[in-house]
Amino acid sequence: MSKHSIFLRIYAGLVILVVLVALFGYLLVQIINYQRAQEYRESLTDGISFVISEGVARQQTEQQRLDWISDASDLLELPIYYLDAQKVDLSRTEEKRIENQKAVVRYDAEQGIAYLVLGIRNDPKHYLYIKVDQIGERQMKALPVFILDYLVYYPGQEQEYLKKIQQHFSYHVGVEKISQLNLDSEQIGRLRSDQSVILWRDSATVRGTTISIVSPLPNSPTNVLVLGPVPMFNWMPVKLAAGITLLSMFLLCLGVYGLIVPMQRKLKQVNQALDVMKTGDMSQRVPVEGHDEMASLASSYNSMSDHIQRLIEAQRELMRAVSHELRTPVARIRFGMEMLADEDDHEYRLQQVEMIDKDIEALNTLIDEIMTYAKLEQGTPSLDFEKIALIDVLQQVATETEALKTQKIIHLNPLSSDVVVDAERRYLHRVVQNLVGNAVRYCDHQVSLSGGVNHQTKMAYVCVEDDGPGIPEEDRKRVFEAFARLDDSRTRASGGYGLGLSIVSRIAYWFGGTIEVDQSPELGGARFTMSWPVERFKKKKVQASKEKA
């Protein structure tokens, strides 16, 4: 049953949900970071690509361009190719970037190599193709050289053209005073030696680690060219982490809601059924879906409703039947008492007293039957299962029936005393006694009594057959209803009240078995067979020992 537990399924569902949401969050971060990394690479290369492209575009002849490209390749220590534009296949997005004087970056994640495609302003038939397999201090220190080479064509207008090219850079490019940069003496000394300085800055701000490149300016000992600060790529910035966390929590909430909704719906169905029950309507039933605790609750509610409805109907039927059954003996007793009051004949008075005594005995029998039936119908009776030799009960009933001198043949089929069953002796005796008594009333001459154990089905059984008229097939279910009579006149003549077989049916139910009626293949009359688990008591003991363990 644990595998069908709704709480286990909810816990398992939550674990699976957390794993799926975590996997989704991881994949989402990877997808977002892939795009962010691409945009980051493009933002870093756009500005310097523009400056390099402008440097090539200033060259007058193709040979001058090739020489300039060769010098730039040596400076960067990166291969730069001057390619025919028709040999480079670009997408629409990449063509748009070339038109906007931006770099096309193609990154090979497996080899860790980036390929840059740069357009040339006045040479649309060629592209610059740069293979970037490393970014080190040499490459970073070479960047200011290209910017200075661009500014050398505009003497005295450096600040103006720096502002002009700033739109191509995603980071700051400008001229600043050395005194404002908070440099140490070693760094200042390297600047005075015409060497560029790389500044690494760590901070607890959103920008995190940044890099700045400081390069000396020709003929300007107090000013320097500063590129940056350029923030390092952050794989998990605060905004991304917060967004993924909120999205994951939202998905978890949706998942939990999806897990709880079915249980809430089933609880609502039970509550609605209970509200209907409070109005006195017992016809409402709850659909049983699945095999979990909610299905068990719905099944228990339906069983309770069936039982309550059956009890109410049985009570009504019992009241109607009891009032009907009591009237006849009470009327006879009243009539006999009136006859006693007016009769002086002693023998006749004794005869009337004997008849009254029989009516009183009939009332006692009826009351006993009603009390037994009511006890079995209301709920689980107190059953004390024990090991019983089946032959003992059958022999006892056969002997008691023969003692009544019914003038009928009671045949007990041979049965070994080793056949032992688990049963409540008092109720098993009542079953056999009621079945034999019913058979004696309706048989012509003979009643057959047998019992045993079916080893294949592990079911014990008792069987009572007679040679009477039998029971029509369409009436075989109705004989187990309380106060049911198939032949009212014959039943009254035989002294029955219609409760005996109902009591047998309820005892079979509480034994965990069944009672069936069909035609006897040997005697031709009715055959009643009650079956119940032969090892029920043992199973309960084993189960109890397991629970204690």
Automatic annotation (TrEMBL):
<dbReference type="InterPro" id="IPR003661">
    <property type="entry name" value="HisK_dim/P_dom"/>
</dbReference>
<keyword id="KW-0547">Nucleotide-binding</keyword>
<dbReference type="InterPro" id="IPR036097">
    <property type="entry name" value="HisK_dim/P_sf"/>
</dbReference>
<dbReference type="InterPro" id="IPR003660">
    <property type="entry name" value="HAMP_dom"/>
</dbReference>
<dbReference type="InterPro" id="IPR005467">
    <property type="entry name" value="His_kinase_dom"/>
</dbReference>
<dbReference type="GO" id="GO:0005886">
    <property type="term" value="C:plasma membrane"/>
</dbReference>
<dbReference type="InterPro" id="IPR003594">
    <property type="entry name" value="HATPase_dom"/>
</dbReference>
<keyword id="KW-0597">Phosphoprotein</keyword>
<keyword id="KW-0418">Kinase</keyword>
<keyword id="KW-0812">Transmembrane</keyword>
<feature type="transmembrane region" description="Helical">
    <location>
        <begin position="6"/>
        <end position="29"/>
    </location>
</feature>
<keyword id="KW-0808">Transferase</keyword>
<dbReference type="InterPro" id="IPR036890">
    <property type="entry name" value="HATPase_C_sf"/>
</dbReference>
<dbReference type="Pfam" id="PF00672">
    <property type="entry name" value="HAMP"/>
</dbReference>
<dbReference type="InterPro" id="IPR050980">
    <property type="entry name" value="2C_sensor_his_kinase"/>
</dbReference>
<dbReference type="Pfam" id="PF00512">
    <property type="entry name" value="HisKA"/>
</dbReference>
<feature type="domain" description="Histidine kinase">
    <location>
        <begin position="321"/>
        <end position="536"/>
    </location>
</feature>
<keyword id="KW-0472">Membrane</keyword>
<dbReference type="GO" id="GO:0000155">
    <property type="term" value="F:phosphorelay sensor kinase activity"/>
</dbReference>
<keyword id="KW-0067">ATP-binding</keyword>
<feature type="transmembrane region" description="Helical">
    <location>
        <begin position="240"/>
        <end position="260"/>
    </location>
</feature>
<protein>
    <recommendedName>
        <fullName>histidine kinase</fullName>
        <ecNumber>2.7.13.3</ecNumber>
    </recommendedName>
</protein>
<feature type="domain" description="HAMP">
    <location>
        <begin position="263"/>
        <end position="313"/>
    </location>
</feature>
<dbReference type="Pfam" id="PF02518">
    <property type="entry name" value="HATPase_c"/>
</dbReference>
<dbReference type="InterPro" id="IPR004358">
    <property type="entry name" value="Sig_transdc_His_kin-like_C"/>
</dbReference>
<keyword id="KW-1003">Cell membrane</keyword>
<dbReference type="GO" id="GO:0005524">
    <property type="term" value="F:ATP binding"/>
</dbReference>
<keyword id="KW-1133">Transmembrane helix</keyword>
